[in-house]
Amino acid sequence: MIRFTLIAALVSVVFFQILGEKVPVNEGAMGDGLFFREVAGSFLEKIEGGSYNVIQMQRVMPFAFVNVMFGVFEIVKSYDNLIRGMLVLHFLFLGLGVYWYFALATKLRLGDSLSILGFVLLFVNFAVLKDPWYNPFSTDLPTLMLAIGQANYFIKINRQKLFLVSIVAGFVWPTMMLTGLLLLFLPSEQLLFYPEERPKSFFPVITSLFLLVFLGLLGMFTGRFFQEGFWNVALHIGSILSLVLFVLGMMVRNPIDWSKSYELMIKKTKSQKMGRLLGIFMVFVLVIFLLSGNNATVQPVGLFLGFVKDTLRFPGDFLVGHFMFFGFMIPLSLVFFPRMVKEAAKLGMGMTVVGILIFVFALHPESRLLLAFFPFMVVLLLKAVRRYRIVNKDLIVASVVNVSVSLFWLPLNVPGMEEALGLGSKEVLEMFPAQRYWMHFGHMMSFEVFLAGGGIFMVLVFLAWKGKMRYKREEYVRGRSVAAKI
To answer: Would the pTM count as exceeding 0.70?
Structure first.
């Protein structure tokens, strides 16, 4: 009954969104969506001519599928029909993701409370309830749903299906094939932890100093220290310091004994498996390269500069951006970070390396980079809070927060939105009304949205920490009561 209620509520919201508003410019597409719409309309005609580069080839699968289906059923490839085709495909992916999630919940033996919590964190957010239906020409929802499939088959230890899902996902998002191979071939033995508290070490401090120097040099190389306005430079310096302190804090809270775990990994790693990992990955890269063409347009330096230009705008903007995109999951992850690391280590080196990738990509404020990893974060959190008592109040708070932050109920196409998105300049996109959409993207949000979102984020971190402390106090009181009876 609980599962039926959750699915019914989700489907109701989704149908509301399917029939609702779409991107008001370019007949329903903007940004990368213009390219993806072209793929959906002419994939079979252009693939033979090698019209897509290696990066584009790793994201074309959903749109190529729509193109093939339209060709099979002889449907006219008008813009309106292509939008409908993408909406149907997104709905099918969503159904598959829900099926995989409940299969995963059954494997993990989650109770009703944890199943509801996981469902809310995974499906009640901007990434599921609003963005794919407003901007249908994107790979975001298929990426998230296929990542749920990867997490499901990894927990179930179903290697064949994990491999098949990873192959498909490799043509939806660039990192997903690598994620699947890491989970398949790296040792599954549990890593080693410190027996008590982490011993004092200079390693986190030294690493943080190297990171500080690297970010400083990067800021000079990209000209961020020489931009106009004292306030912009001050914000950039504050962003660097906050990022370094964040990394230092996470390293200090790390419970894994890396020196002993490294020795264990070397001992347990089999050269045959590593050869398969590298071999399969190289074959996949070769296939992508052979299918692609026009790779002269790929500029590695330009890609790197494009990757870093939107970072370090505001102090901690990556946390605020991820919170706006994914909801309460981000404050909970901060509070339960050490336990999530432990759970990743218990699942083996593959999950631990994926956890390191999550941490690295999380430092960038564009939340779409985390979509391929988000279900693994939810799995680790659910395993981390399994011993905690989740009460109805906790579920209500999580649900209200995620529904509110998703803003699925908020109309976006207000007067001025079409003009703002049509102009597309950075300055215009940081002003109202464009922020009604871009406030969920950390690399595009305005300073005012950052301040408001940051304030809410800190309140939720405090609430999550209080909930954790409440459980410990209750556990302490119960322990004293049992001792008194004895």
So the answer is: yes
